[in-house]
What does this fold into?
Amino acid sequence: MCKSFWIIVFGIATVIALLAANVPRDNNYGGRGQMQETEPNKPISDANNINITVIFDNNPYKKGLETSWGFSCVISGTENTILFDTGGDGKLLLENMSKMGIDANNIETVVLSHIHGDHTGGLEMFLQKNPKVCVYLPKSFPKRFKEMVTSYGAKFVEVEKHAKICENVYSTGQLGTLTKEQGLIIQTEKGLIIITGCAHPGIVKMVKASKVLFNEQILLVMGGFHLEWATRGKIEKIITAFKDFNVKYVGPCHCTGDKARTLFEKHFAKNYINIGVGKVVAIKGLQ
It folds into this structure.
């Protein structure tokens, strides 16, 4: 009797273990579309495949492409092809993508840094073209915006804390007070790549938050640094902070301002990357 009892118990335990092993898990999602905090993966083994293509910016770079106030870039070579921000004009966004040979239907993930129209204005027209994406947005985004996303059949995930987006790609979590913003972190064997939309919480705070999360070399910081009206003294202090963080390369654009871009170029010299519409930042070329 006793022997039969333990045979039955063992059998039930075995079945439960087998069922648990075959339950699909999605490490990115928690209840109600929330992202879960996750442990960092091993860095991407071949960072040389990563390209960051700027498709929307108010700074010119490649002839034949239109400029406008705002920012957007496409990140390829990571597990998912990512559209970071969508600029302020969907028609211009899609036209620039087409001219650069980027198929909007190949985008799998959209990450929005913050609610301002020069970073989200192109989303609706993009979703008309490709609704088969998941949009990662700060939890603070208004309900009507989230309803717009789902009205096209797309999914969205609310981001509050630091969390994983796909393999080796993370959100800083929403930072700041008045304007809440998330940055994008790509973990590579060469170091961290940090991309910001406008850096409203402060570019130094966003870099520091990334450094705290991943105590690793920072390979590149690029995007809007929100220094358009900053004094020379403030900009110099930020550059010093970048040096203290051992940032190797910088690519300021959008709302950084010409004065700040010039100063960053002066201090970073050959490690300064001139960003504008059409610029392709090939990680292969960064040492």
Q: What stands out?
A: The chain has one domain: 49-285.
